[in-house]
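Because showing beats explaining, we let one protein speak, sequence and backbone structure tokens together, and leave readers to judge.
___
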Amino acid sequence: MSWFRREDNNIESASEKSVRTEGLWIKCEACDQVIWRADLEANMMVCPKCGHHFRMGARARIDLLLEPGYELVDLNLKSTDPLQFSDLKRYKDRLAKAQADTGLNDAIVNAIGKLGEHSVVVSAMEYSFIGGSMGAVVGETIARAADRAYESRHPLLIVAASGGARMMEGIVSLMQLAKISAALTRLDEAGIPFISVLTDPTTGGVTASFAMLGDLNIGEPGALIGFAGPRVIEQTIRQKLPEGFQRSEFLLNHGFLDAVVPRKEMKAYLERALSFMAVR
């Protein structure tokens, strides 16, 4: 009965298909919509169905905000592993893997260029590099961005995405909070604007320092913003937290943010803000 015999040996197995299509589709964690990755990227990593804002890399952020022809700067700094730290893995190994995966030396990218007609200095954090944690290199790079803004008298824009201080560097990481805050104080005294854009997530020592020190603090929709996480707070105070606690809309309603701006509107909003600040 050859009618029922399958002669075609070129049919792909299910495992081969899954390998070929892996990563081409993404499921929205907010509405469960399955989205073609290329469509999601074309829509600025925003779900076309519910508007959920996916996380975005540092270079993509800079591409989104600055005009073509911008210059990346301060990319040569690398951590020296000051404590020779090791837990489940050596810190050196974690750094090497993150560098290989992201193509960056650390969790930060600085750029200088134009946002519309305004010359700006931008510092964007990379969450996929050890959770965007702030160690010595991230602190020094952001401080250099503040110094560039001070010297050029151009506004500083920092896009935060971080789990907080990088504890594999211990006190060295915590020193960065004061270091960056001091650099921002100098900008404030000189009347040079600093705008902070807080994305999902912005937590820990980053929130406790520069992320909340902007002349204008802007959150993306639905971004988790806080110091300790909601689960830790609930366990500490032994109370159930309000719905949406530590999300950007909740913080806006309670006076911790100046605005919540969708990603598609962010560039235009920043242009208007800089025009209002009379900065060219």
In short: The mean pLDDT is 92.
